[in-house]
Give the backbone structure.
Amino acid sequence: MKRPLVLSAMLCFVICATALTYIDTGSTQSPTTSTQQPGKADKPATKVQGCVSAGNGAFNLTDGSGTIYRLAGDASKFPEHNGHKVEVTGTIAPPTSGQADSQPTLTVSAIELIASSCTAS
């Protein structure tokens, strides 16, 4: 008498496990990546070359056209590049609206030394 009940329970378990596996597999094929933050669209990585400088408790990167970016990300790497010409890979966020002195923010994913000093062009 218990044998049909056990077989029914096992069959139900297998069906449920298969359904959950199918649903889980489908969700991993989503076009979003696991590193994407909810509610934020993927921003393409950008490379910017310029000079790193420190000021007002923050680090900035000034590119060849004079645009100044506030650097964000792993700040422990910025002091070693102070005064150096570098190439930064990251994403750019526009300046905060409503502030006259606001700068675009460059969130750094990689920083590469180009020259140990910045020279005027």
